[in-house]
Amino acid sequence: MFQKFIINQDGVLKFGHVYLHRDLLGYEEQCPYGGGLWKTDEMRGAILLYGRSFDFGTPDFNHVHRIEWTGVGGKPATLFYLPNWPDENPAIPVYAK
What we know:
Blueprint (H helix, E strand, L loop, with lengths): L1 E6 L4 E7 L16 E7 L4 E5 L15 E3 L9 E5 L9 E3 L3
Parallel strand pairs: 2-5, 4-6
Antiparallel strand pairs: 1-2, 1-3, 3-4, 6-7
């Protein structure tokens, strides 16, 4: 299993431990806003988002309206997107709008 995330058609950012990004989709759900991988950064108390989904493309965080925390243990944390992974600069904050 891999730590992956998607952004569904309703702007919900969903996390999980799955083999494929599509395994995060519910019935009749779509993923038009991409996805990627995530990992926990214990030192910062944050979750780092990086990479892209081969099935759904690069994440577009401008469409995030809600964050579903159950896939990361149910506890909200600071989110950073790392567009140049493994280089952690820049680390762009991600918020629900």
